[in-house]
Write a structure and sequence with these properties.
The protein is mostly helical and 78 residues long. Helix content is 69%, strand content 0%. The N and C termini lie far apart (35 Å).
Length: 78
């Protein structure tokens, strides 16, 4: 998967692909506090080009209180 090229967001997508559907949710939970908002935004922006299982795992990760609050704080919504 070279959707995002050689950047952190691309590394995230490639790691999720390598781990597969069974471990993607765990990986996203682990990465939430370690990956910056810009990288997550890049991952979110290509969801429609990712496998369904990966896009679903990313969406579920976004729905968690941790990432939702981080994104809201960074956008000045809180």
């Amino acid at each position: 998967m070279l959707v995002l090229g050689d950047c952190i967001a691309g590394d995230v997508v490639r790691a999720l692909e390598w781990l597969g559907p069974d471990l993607a949710g765990q990986a996203i939970a682990t990465l939430l506090g370690r990956i910056g908002q810009d990288e997550w935004q890049a991952v979110f922006s290509v969801q429609n080009r990712l496998p369904v299982w990966m896009a679903t795992a990313i969406q579920h990760g976004v729905a968690t209180p941790t990432i939702s609050s981080l994104l809201a704080e960074d956008e000045g919504l809180c």
